[in-house]
Amino acid sequence: MGLVGIDLGPARARDRFLRGESVDEAVRSPILNSWERSLALGLSPAGCALPYRSDLDLEGRLVRAAEPVLDRLQELFTDRDMNVSLADGRGAVLQRRFGKPSQVRRLAAIQSVPGYVFAEEFGGTNGIGLALAERQLINVYGAEHFAERSQANACSAIPVRDPLSGRIEGVLCLGYPLTDVDAALATVIRKAAGAIERRLLEQSSTRERTLLRAYLDARHRTPTGDGQPGEFTEGVLDRRDQMILQEKAADLIALAQRAAMEVPLPGGRRVTLLSRPVTSASGVEGIAIEAVLAAPHQPVAVPAVTGPPPETSPGPPAQQSPEPALPRLWPVPGTAARKAATTTHPPGTAEAASAHTASGLVLVGEPGVGKYAVAARRRLELLSEASTRIGTTLDVTRTAHELAEMAVPHLADFVTIELPEAVLRGDEPTDPRTGLHRVVLHGYREDCPFYPAGEPISLRSTTPQLRCLASGRSVLEPELRTATGWIAQDPGHAQRLLDHNVHSLIAVPLIARGIALGVASFYRSRDPAPFGDDDRSLAQELATRAAICIDNARRYTREHNMVLALQHSLLPHSFPEQNAVEVAHRYLPAESGVGGDWYDVIPLSSSRVALVVGDVVGHGLHAAATMGRLRTAARNFAELELAPDEVLTCLDNLVARLDRDEGGEDADGMTRIIGATCLYAVYDPTSQQCCMARAGHPPPALVHPDGAVAFPDLPAGPPLGLGGLPFETVEFHLPEGSQLVLYTDGLVEDRRRDLDTAFDQLRRALSHPNRPPEETCAEVLRTVVPRRPTDDIALLVARTHALDAHRIATWTPTPDPALVSGLRAAVTRQLAAWGLDEVSFAAELVLSELVTNAIRYGTAPIQVRLLYDRALTCEVSDASSTAPHLRHAATTDEGGRGLFLVAQLAQAWGTRYTATGKVIWAECALQLAGGRPDTVAAYFDDVPAL
Fold it and tell me: Residue 422 belongs to what H/E stretch?
């Protein structure tokens, strides 16, 4: 095969298109339209992920018809780099054949394994997907493919249709290297598709084929027809429209005469169905149903027929020549102008009418057998559609709604579904007949007086619903006017339903794994015929499929609630009281599952406070449990009074150790890797300084008191768990009234939104002066959170406060023991000025011990500081790094009891290290229990005089 017309044009055009430039003249319109649809679907050229389906019909009529043709193509392309694939009407590949057998070993799974779906909505522009979208022969060359992985390939694809119905059954596709493009391949693939279609036609009955031949012969003799009725595209009639038309066409076939019927469709459209009696050469009589869709305000002329229906040439079948290949019932590409309307018109109006109408063959069948065959086919199509439309989510209520939407209007006019409250919670019902809630009320109209959805329902044991739940079998009430059990529930309510022509009922239990999960009720009102056994079987089949999906959703709900409860138990329910910051927080779980986001506010010594926000990689139970462990570890490391970078280093080591010890594999065989991001900040209200560090976490937002918003230049640092890389602490001054906003990446990261746009939205939401943190949280959630968040969101807003300078007292004594008594007196005067005489005894003793230790064992300079906040904090700092230790002194020891007394008198004490030394601190509660000095007075006898 030679290279034909291939240049770099498509590649350059594709690059310009992705940059947003116009390429209308450089790209073929089908390709350009497909590119635009792919972008509108949110697809990325580098990330077109194809879904895999295991529910393939590998022995269906399409595969049986295509196998000999595929064998012939494989033989034709022996030793060539040719990939021959057959896909079904969804774009899922059913079979693949290769010219060179070695291709299988070097091709990716999506190019060699059946089951991957190449529909345009998943794979972007490609042969199979575009053939389904354009409904004609398609060639895609190199860079015309939307996915980058297909840039070196070319392909030709053509739809394969059912000759009787005109419906696309599948797609035949040839894939080959870009250098092997050959115009002759179009002829090859057309002939191959035609051979498959002929074999599909052969699978239909002889009577159906002869009726179709008679119908086509009759159209050849119609003045305005050419024997080639058109086909409605999906833009004109969708699947639901076609099902409505097929349902009405079955009624016309049963009439066995020429007739016309106007059928209303959703959206105010109307279609005229015309029935044409036909008789085959062998004497088989049948009816062909055509649909004519006129333009708005354009009437369809239906001729009055006085003569008998047209027939084919007489003569016994044995004297006729072999049946020729049947003509197509759809337009050949390039011949769309040949379409003709399927009706006759008065003289002089044929051309005008044809210009304003579209037509297509709906059904061909016999009045008796055809009606039941059509009904059976309609039921199978409904069940097939139900398998794809019921259970699209793991939500119990939504799944119940999908069952009702499938049943109306194809089976029933109204559907109600009741589920026990336990099922809605995710539990198994102990008795499905109690605690029922109506979760669905769906019908073709909204004014029918059923009990409303969303309320509990109390049913009597005589009602069909409870009878079916008790027996586990569906209950058919063909005539509700005589159904005493149904009427006895509420005679007045029953009469109102009967007045709205609700006359027949099928009650079906929703049973999965032998457990009744609820009941579905199907009501009929528009069709005067009552429900029959076939309707009950169809309702039972629909309910069985829905019950399995409801049970899956219920079990997911239970597991999701368990994980959510675990996560909520691991998150803080309230924060300790402190005056450094005013805090508001929010947590939003992702729609797809619970994640590992967390936040915390940790009071530290000397009125300081630590703010933490973190995010564990992944979702589910493992992420929630890991989050709890990291949050606990962060609190423990904070208690050690470490700097932010040192806290992150400790967390980094912990995550790395967890990854080594518990990496393992999940149940699905995927390696489980533990990873997390974190931001840790410490705010000191005495100096209004904030020091922070982050490990791969989004930067915080700083809102100044005047409403100006800034994102501090804080080094990102590596995510937790990588190990061996340093973190960096940065210090900022926060004026009183500033707001520090910490959040996880779910707030700003969204595949449908640019990251810079998200930060601009966050900046606008925060740029308001003097707003309380609660209002800030509400505004951020309202304007910044993605509409359908795919990740958890944790948000922490802290408005800073400063400790009044009048509540801070500082002394810098010289290292002389003789001056301690003077310092004690100064402290007593300061406490009296603050009105804290009740704690002066304990404070004097604590400071005496701490200062004496600093003079004896520490290094100058020494500083003493008192902080009057929620507690009285006594601090003594010096330039040494030697830490004191609490111990039990023997009765003969002269010392060693000082820190023991400090621990008894203070509610908390400890040591923290600074860049210039250490600080020993002790907190005294401001509401001491009566008799506290007497309690510890017994220890004073052994204390050396200071």
Answer: helix 421-425
Tally of CA atoms within 13 A in the half-sphere of 311 that contains its CB = 12
Q: What distances in angstroms separate CA 41 from CA 34, 37, 123, 141, 280, one per listed residue? A: 10, 6, 10, 22, 49
- Pick the more confident residue, 895 or 855: 855
Separation of CA 841 from chain center: 64
Cα(141)–Cα(154) distance, rounded to whole angstroms? 4
What does the DSSP assignment read for 63-76? HHHHHHHHHHHHHH
pLDDT in the model for residue 66: 94
Phi, psi of 350 (to 5 degrees): -65, -50
Contacts of 620 (CB under 8 A, 6+ apart): 563, 593, 594
Distance separating alpha carbons of residues 69 and 190, to the nearest angstrom: 12
Measuring CA to CA, which residue among 907, 803, 816 is closest to residue 865? 803
343, exposed or middle or buried, with CB in 10 Å at 0-12, 13-18, 19+?
A: buried
Orientation of helix 533-570 relative to helix 396-407, angle to 10°? 160
Nearest partner of 800 among 580, 554, 616, judged by Cα:
580
State mean pLDDT over 572-598.
83
- Report how far residue 141's alpha carbon sits from residue 181's, in angstroms, rounded to the nearest whole number: 8
Alpha-carbon distance values, 801 to 513, 737, 768 (Å): 60, 6, 18
Residue 912, strand partner residues: 919
| Phi and psi at residue 890, to the nearest 5° | -70, 160
Residues 6+ positions from 864 with CB-CB distance below 8 Å: 810, 811, 812, 813, 823, 827, 847, 851, 874, 875, 876
Average pLDDT over residues 108-122: 88
**Tell me: the pLDDT tens digits for 825-871?**
898 899 899 988 888 888 888 888 888 888 888 888 989 999 999 88
DSSP 853: H
Q: Which of 795, 911, 792 is nearest to 857 (CA)?
A: 911
Q: Which residues contact 614 (CB under 8 A, 6 or more apart)?
A: 596, 597, 598, 599, 627, 630, 631, 634, 676, 677, 678, 679, 697, 744
d(Cα 613, Cα 696) in Å, to the nearest integer?
12
pLDDT of residue 319: 34
Band of residue 888 on the pLDDT scale cut at 50, 70, 90: low
Q: What is the DSSP string of 348-414?
A: T-HHHHHHTEEEEEEEEE-TTHHHHHHHHHHHHHHHHHHHHHTTSSS-HHHHHHHHHHHHTTTT-SE
β-bridge partners, 867: 808, 873
Burial of 753 per CB tally in 10 Å (0-12, 13-18, 19+):
middle
In 3D, which of 541, 440, 529, 441 has the Cα closest to residue 478? Answer: 529
3-state secondary structure of 586: strand
Tell me: pLDDT of 902 over 90.
no
Phi, psi (deg, nearest 5) at residue 378: -65, -40
Q: At residue 574, what are phi and psi to the nearest 5 degrees?
A: -155, 165
Q: Give the side-chain half-sphere CA count within 13 A for 805.
A: 2
pLDDT digits (tens, 9 = 90+) for 232-261: 544 567 656 776 787 777 777 777 778 888
Strand, helix or coil at 548?
A: helix
User: CB-side exposure of 210: number of CA atoms within 13 Å?
Assistant: 18
> How would you list the strands of the sheet with 863-868, edge to edge?
808-811, 863-868, 872-878, 917-924, 908-914
Is residue 714 within 8 A of residue 698, CB to CB? The reply is no
User: What Rg value do the Cα atoms of the chain yield, rounded?
Assistant: 40
- Asked whether 162 and 200 are in contact (CB, 8 A), the reply is yes
Taking every pair of Cα atoms in the chain, the longest distance, rounded to a whole number of angstroms, is 137
Instruction: Give the CA dihedral 551, 553, 557, 560, nearest 10 degrees.
Output: 120
